[in-house]
UniProtKB/TrEMBL annotation:
Protein name as annotated: ABC transporter ATP-binding protein
UniProt cross-references to InterPro entries, sorted A to Z: AAA+_ATPase, ABC_transporter-like_ATP-bd, ABC_transporter-like_CS, ABC_transporter_ATP-binding, P-loop_NTPase
Superkingdom, natural source: Bacteria
Keyword rRNA processing in annotation: no
Domain ABC transporter: 5-235
Protein keywords: ATP-binding, Nucleotide-binding, Transport
Leader sequence segment: none
One Pfam family it belongs to: ABC_tran
């Protein structure tokens, strides 16, 4: 097996609209992979297909060398996911939910209990064990969804906007947890609009725009490609991922960047 995640011609349509258009991805085991794109580009739709939450219209997906369509359960056992809507069970408490998830993955009760306690402590949720999940704040729900996604020690973790709504202290803890997983050989595939965090964590980046992949590779290669172009434009110095992203998307749009437009009527 050479890839942790490999897609070929992955496509999803909604009626006539092509949300994901013949995407070929190749993520090596142990990579920290950032999947970027503007709003509505097709990131969540792709993650949903990669984790079995949405069927592709066409194309193939292999995860850890296994055909997802043919052997979905075998794949699902080895992956963890925090999807866009988190999909928690609101009428349970956090320990009840983690116990449910742990047992669903076939962990014995003692292991589930021990990991659940450790995770709640780690996520700073240990004092919230009596509250129903439906009464959790958005950030608390996000942290619980993350805890549930890793309780079975998955080999691949898929995260759709893991830092959204999470406070700075928790974001720091989370980054540490993800880096620890990478150090122990896991693969992480994440979407985020927080490009400073992606830049700090991810070794590889792909950019999707209107359903099509428009950039894909090691972050440093992407940087040097865009950097060479920007030198021709007269700009020198190291580009941040945010600058790289804006340049790549701007080139596709061929329009005036939003920052240069004005809402003159607005005060
Ligand atoms: N169930 C659906 N029915 C119709 N259109 C959909 C559906 N799900 C997604 N889309 C459309 O597919 C496109 C891609 O959506 P997606 O949620 O994948 O974008 P995204 O890159 O995750 O965006 P964001 O960064 O805003 O979360 C959008 O135009 C969206 O409206």
């Amino acid at each position: 097996m050479n890839s942790a995640i490999a897609t070929s011609g992955l496509t999803r349509t909604f009626g006539d609209f092509v949300a994901v258009d013949h995407v070929n991805l190749n993520v090596a085991p142990g990579q920290f992979f950032g999947f970027l794109g503007p709003n509505g580009a097709g990131k969540s739709t792709t993650i949903k297909m990669l984790t079995g939450l949405l069927a592709p219209t066409s194309g193939s997906i292999e995860v850890l060398g296994v055909n997802f369509t043919k052997y979905p359960l075998e794949v699902k056992r080895q992956i963890g996911v925090v999807p866009e809507g988190m999909a928690l069970l609101g009428r349970l408490t956090a320990p009840e939910y983690l116990r449910f998830v742990g047992e669903m993955y076939g962990l014995d009760r003692a292991t589930t209990l021990q990991r659940s306690e450790e995770l709640l402590e780690f996520m700073n949720l240990a004092s919230e064990t009596k509250k129903l999940i439906t009464d959790f704040s958005h950030g608390m729900q996000k942290k619980l969804a993350l805890a549930a996604a890793v309780i079975h020690a998955p080999r691949i973790l898929f995260l759709d906007e893991p830092f959204e709504g999470v406070d700075a202290v928790a974001a720091g803890t989370l980054k540490q947890m993800l880096q620890g997983m990478i150090a122990r050989g896991a693969t992480i595939f994440l979407t985020s609009h927080v490009l400073e965090i992606v830049e700090r964590l991810c070794s590889h980046v792909a950019i999707i725009h209107r359903g099509k992949l428009i950039a894909n590779g090691p972050l440093e290669e992407l940087r040097s490609g865009v950097y060479a172009q920007s030198e021709q434009d007269g700009q020198t110095g190291r580009l941040t991922l945010e600058e790289i992203f804006i340049r790549i998307i701007g080139k596709q749009e061929g329009a005036t960047p939003a920052t240069e437009q004005e809402l003159s009527w607005l005060g």
